[in-house]
Amino acid sequence: MTDLVIRALDASDAHLFDTLPDPLDAREGHRRTRHRPDWKRVALRDGTVVARAAWWGGPDDTEPVTVNWFDVAEGEEEAGAELLRTAPWQVELELNPPGTWREDPAVRAAAEARFTAARAAGYDLLVERFLYRWTPQCGLPERPGRLDFRPEPDDAVFFDALRRIHSVTLDAHALMDIAEGGLDKAAQSELDFFRWCPSPREWWQLAYTPRGELAGIHIPAHNPSGPCIGFIGVLPEHRGRGYAYDLLAECTHFLVERGAEFVSAATDRGNHPMAANFAKAGYPVVRERINFRPALAVR
Question: Strand pairing partners for 285?
Answer without folding.
Answer: 132
